[in-house]
Amino acid sequence: MKPSTALTILTLAVHSFAAPAPIPKAIAARQASDTENDLVDGVCKALTVIFARGTTESGNVGTLAGPPFFEALYADIGSVDVALQGVDYPASIAGFLEGGDPTGATTMANLVNQAATQCPGTKIVMSGYSQGGQLVHKAAAMLSPALTAKVNSVVIFGDPDNGEAVGSIPSSKVLIICHVGDDICLHGDAILPPHLDYALNAGQAAAFVVELSGL
Question: If 125 and its partner were Cys, which of 25, 28, 49, 100 is the partner (CB 3.0–4.6 Å)?
Answer without folding.
Answer: 49
